[in-house]
Amino acid sequence: MSRAEDIFQKLIYFGEDALDDFIINRQAEELFLDFKQTTPGIGKNVTSLPRDDRKNLAKCISGFGNSEGGVIIWGVECSRDMDIGDVAKAKVKVPNVHRYLSWLENAISGCTIPSHNKVRNHIISVDKNGDGYIATYIPKAEVSPLMSTVGNSIYIRSGSNNVPAPYSVIAGMFGRSPQPNIDLRLMDKKIEIIDNQEEHLVTGTEDNPDKSFAKVIRIGFSVHAQNNSSVIARELYLSCSNESTGSDLNKVRFLNYNQMDAIAGLPSQLNLISRQELRLPPRGSLKFANIEIILTPLAENDFLFDGVVGADKAAPKNFRIYINKNTLRSYVAKALRLEKDDAEGRTLLLNEFFNDFFRSES
User: Fold this and answer.
1) Using CA of residue 147, residue 153, residue 156, residue 157, what is the dihedral sign?
2) Alpha-carbon gap, residue 32 to 273, rounded angstroms
3) Long-range contacts for 353-359 (Cβ within 8 Å, ≥24 apart)?
4) CA distances in angstroms from 198 to 95, 98, 206, 214, 341, listed in the order given
5) In angstroms, rounded to a whole number, what is the distance separating the alpha carbons of residues 180 and 280?
6) What is the pLDDT of residue 177?
7) 223 touches 309 (CB < 8 A)
8) Torsion-angle region of residue 100: left (phi > 0), alpha (psi -120 to 50) or beta?
9) What's the gap between Cα 42 and its chain centre?
10) Is-contact 216 202, C-beta < 8 A?
11) What is the pLDDT of residue 240?
């Protein structure tokens, strides 16, 4: 997940609380984030996005789209900080937020040439009067450069500003062929409480030959790569390693990767690359492997699992599962207290694992 998408998902998940957090922490505008206020005093006779707001939207779509993507938050006032730039100061609600959302949606396709068809909007919150806040997510464009139709300039993101691109940058954009964009997808997520006396998943080690547990936890998921670009991707790869499982009784297993070429590494590593004849078309998805994590109540160290997916000529996407030892003990204890038929409890624990312990970035 890119930094811009991570910000957008935070706004979707936490809503207005995320805005309050930005203001409390004096969040500055930056490479992936812009704060905007809407044109004041919009009358009832206005039927489309006001001129200044359209100009701001067009510059951001061009700037973020030609760079690494970004998010506009509509409804936040900024103040100038001499050290760090424009910082979030206060919330200023967008009047009639659903109407404003409609104006944004209608304006997007005409803001740049070519149009950026991956821009998404989300209403962060709305009050009883219909006023609220909106987030606009602008991913990196698959086809660039994007020229703003307001002023006919090509922008790139520089720090917290959208600036006209220098000639050398524009020349490089025209000369660069489209590249694959590989995203990480985790599928088939599940958590199980296993009767260890029946399945014998944990039977002790040299250091703990007599150590065993009546029940253990098994968390499973499959790792996929999705080609979110307009070109074919080749030589896709997955590399991952469990630097620490938390104890010598916990385990990480790599399963069902026989459709890939495996490159020998350390016992705790998995290095896979797709076979030369494989080509992944645009919007296509490829499964690398299944991964199982076996956790016991014994946690002497932090749990750390690192990985990366990518393809030839594509930017790699890193991911990590990290749980400190105290949190790991608490998490396993909660899981083992669940009743066998508590499906809701298992779902909450599964969501906690992937929401709190799993991180990905570009």
Assistant:
1) negative
2) 31
3) 353/191, 353/219, 354/186, 354/189, 354/221, 357/303, 357/321, 357/322, 357/323, 358/186, 358/319, 358/320, 358/321, 359/319, 359/320, 359/321, 359/322
4) 62, 57, 22, 9, 18
5) 10
6) 67
7) yes
8) alpha
9) 35
10) yes
11) 93
Tokens 């030369």, residue?
Answer: 276
* The two structure tokens encoding residue 119: 């821009």
CB burial string 79-110: b at 16+ within 10 A, e below: eeeeeeebbbbebbbbbbbeebbebbeebbee
174: burial class by Cβ within 10 Å (0-12, 13-18, 19+)? exposed
pTM more than 0.85: no
* Spatial contact of 335 and 193, defined as CB atoms under 8 Å apart: yes
* Structure token digits, residue 228: 């979110």
Supply the Cα-derived Rg of the chain in whole angstroms.
Answer: 24
Q: Two tokens at 27?
A: 């969040």
Cis ω for the linkage preceding 40 (within 30 of 0) = no
Of the candidates 36, 41, 49, the residue with the CA atom closest to the CA atom of residue 103: 49
Q: What domains sit in the chain, N to C, each tagged with a CATH number?
A: 3-175 (3.30.950.30), 182-361 (2.60.40)
Query: Does residue 36 sit in helix, strand or coil?
Result: strand
- pLDDT per position as a tens digit, 31-50: 999 999 999 877 777 889 99
The residue behind tokens 């779509």 is: 61
Pair 75, 22: CB distance under 8 Å? no
What is the pLDDT, as a whole number, of residue 289?
93
